[in-house]
């Protein structure tokens, strides 16, 4: 078998701005990989983990560097090779997911069946992200999201007047479940007191309050809300050191370096008694497709990446009434 692999970069504009504690984005550059056996083509997409120093250009170079190792391999053998030939990150993710897609198409079965799932993927309630902003802006954004049917909102916060922001969102969307994502910005905040206040405002969980590397500070506290690791958890190897500090992990395929490692990370989290969320970076539906399958067995799904862009691919997911669902062939 001969594999023909191509990698390209695409730029997709954000719908408005995407703002978190680390800054704002008006577009996202995506790495798109296509793997062909001459009859079928598998596709994968990756978004560079910028806080780890990745750029889409570096990711493209990584893929191009390993292509000579893969051209005469089967998709499964190629997946095995890249687990050690590439580090966890967006380059390996795009290539790994493209190989999984090709493998499923060669077998003539859905990806879910290839992964051993007994039933097709079902629609999932997904979080919708409310960008960091003034309380009144976040209130208006939350109201609009609730009117569009989203019942789970993920608020970007930054350690400054977070209670005001959450209270404003609660006012704008009184019935919504709320997740707050601090993106490592709570270094000087009393986490227990802040969590108690946010719990009283109806917050369900807190994501990554402290900078990655400061996780040990969570060992001596008993917060009234579950705390999930995001930047502190990339691969299955990270799970052991997070036990007793976090109550859950956010699995993102770009961080993990693909579906192969995403499956291993989910299994490790379950074995350790941790809850799991499957999240995403800004991406099109191509990047979400394997994550949607993985998310079928987790407690929380945060797969709104395509809904935050100004457009999506023609065969993209349907976002309706707060749920993400695969488009039907006749749609």
UniProtKB/TrEMBL annotation:
<dbReference type="InterPro" id="IPR036849">
    <property type="entry name" value="Enolase-like_C_sf"/>
</dbReference>
<dbReference type="InterPro" id="IPR034593">
    <property type="entry name" value="DgoD-like"/>
</dbReference>
<comment type="similarity">
    <text>Belongs to the mandelate racemase/muconate lactonizing enzyme family.</text>
</comment>
<dbReference type="GO" id="GO:0009063">
    <property type="term" value="P:amino acid catabolic process"/>
</dbReference>
<dbReference type="InterPro" id="IPR013341">
    <property type="entry name" value="Mandelate_racemase_N_dom"/>
</dbReference>
<dbReference type="InterPro" id="IPR029017">
    <property type="entry name" value="Enolase-like_N"/>
</dbReference>
<feature type="domain" description="Mandelate racemase/muconate lactonizing enzyme C-terminal">
    <location>
        <begin position="135"/>
        <end position="226"/>
    </location>
</feature>
<keyword id="KW-0460">Magnesium</keyword>
<dbReference type="InterPro" id="IPR018110">
    <property type="entry name" value="Mandel_Rmase/mucon_lact_enz_CS"/>
</dbReference>
<dbReference type="GO" id="GO:0000287">
    <property type="term" value="F:magnesium ion binding"/>
</dbReference>
<feature type="binding site">
    <location>
        <position position="181"/>
    </location>
    <ligand>
        <name>Mg(2+)</name>
    </ligand>
</feature>
<feature type="binding site">
    <location>
        <position position="207"/>
    </location>
    <ligand>
        <name>Mg(2+)</name>
    </ligand>
</feature>
<dbReference type="InterPro" id="IPR013342">
    <property type="entry name" value="Mandelate_racemase_C"/>
</dbReference>
<protein>
    <recommendedName>
        <fullName>Dipeptide epimerase</fullName>
        <ecNumber>5.1.1.-</ecNumber>
    </recommendedName>
</protein>
<dbReference type="InterPro" id="IPR029065">
    <property type="entry name" value="Enolase_C-like"/>
</dbReference>
<dbReference type="Pfam" id="PF02746">
    <property type="entry name" value="MR_MLE_N"/>
</dbReference>
<feature type="active site" description="Proton acceptor; specific for (R)-substrate epimerization">
    <location>
        <position position="156"/>
    </location>
</feature>
<keyword id="KW-0413">Isomerase</keyword>
<dbReference type="Pfam" id="PF13378">
    <property type="entry name" value="MR_MLE_C"/>
</dbReference>
<feature type="active site" description="Proton acceptor; specific for (S)-substrate epimerization">
    <location>
        <position position="252"/>
    </location>
</feature>
<dbReference type="GO" id="GO:0016855">
    <property type="term" value="F:racemase and epimerase activity, acting on amino acids and derivatives"/>
</dbReference>
<keyword id="KW-0479">Metal-binding</keyword>
<dbReference type="InterPro" id="IPR034603">
    <property type="entry name" value="Dipeptide_epimerase"/>
</dbReference>
<feature type="binding site">
    <location>
        <position position="230"/>
    </location>
    <ligand>
        <name>Mg(2+)</name>
    </ligand>
</feature>
